[in-house]
Design a protein that fits this description.
Structural class: alpha/beta
CATH class of the largest domain: Alpha Beta
Largest sheet: 5 strands, mixed
Number of strands: 5
Mean pLDDT: 94
Strand order of the largest sheet: 2-1-3-4-5
Shape: globular
CATH topology of the largest domain: Beta-carbonic Anhydrase, Chain A
Number of helices: 7
Strand content: 15-25%
Number of domains: 2
Helix content: 25-40%
CATH architecture of the largest domain: 3-Layer(aba) Sandwich
Length: about 190
């Protein structure tokens, strides 16, 4: 089912009626914060409300599970851009209860890829090239451990300014209740 025409029709009205005006802001985050969180649909509006953020307050980076798996991948690059180019000076890693990454089964996902037309030859070529799909598609067993891991990746990054607090939190995707896992100020030298 295509939503493209519905989106474009809505957008024309949105622009014509100047409905964008309440969202006008600058590119620099007013609260000087970068948030790494999960792409879970339940957090789209809940997380900013639960953390008292409005449009323009923070830079938000979303991915599956709020996990940084590669210290030199695109998520960490985005964190560094937010810090060095957009004046953020504090990092929040916010995972959530009932995260799909906790239940992610790599073999099941690979089977779904095959069902949707990815040839076995592509999968075997990737494996033979050193890309271990079962490792790459692996989730985590405990959300708290996932947050601690990601905060550790950020804190150990050689390009992170040493005075940058990196916090870890868990949000309840039903109530918005926040649990502090790591207070980044406790880890500053």
């Amino acid at each position: 089912m295509s939503h493209i025409n519905e989106i474009l029709d809505f957008n024309r009205q949105f622009v014509e009626n100047k409905e964008y005006e309440p969202y006008l802001t600058g590119k620099f985050p007013d609260k000087r914060i970068v948030v790494i969180t999960c792409m879970d649909t339940r957090l789209v509006e809940l997380l900013p409300k639960a953390m008292n953020f409005k449009n323009g307050d923070v830079k938000v980076i979303k991915n599956a599970g709020a996990i940084i798996s590669q210290p030199f991948g695109s998520v960490m690059r985005s964190v560094l851009v937010a810090i060095y180019e957009l004046n953020a000076d504090e990092v929040f890693v916010v995972g959530h209860l009932d995260c799909g990454m906790a239940a992610l089964n790599a073999d099941h996902m690979i089977n779904k890829m095959k069902e949707r037309g990815i040839p076995e030859t592509v999968l075997s070529t990737l494996e033979n090239s050193g890309i271990k799909l079962t490792k790459w598609l692996r989730g985590f067993s405990d959300i708290k451990e996932g947050i601690i891991h990601t905060v550790g990746v950020i804190n150990k990054h050689p390009l992170l300014p040493t005075n940058t607090p990196v916090h870890g939190m868990i949000i309840d995707p039903e109530t918005g209740s926040l649990e502090l896992v790591i207070d980044g100020y406790d880890h500053l030298g």
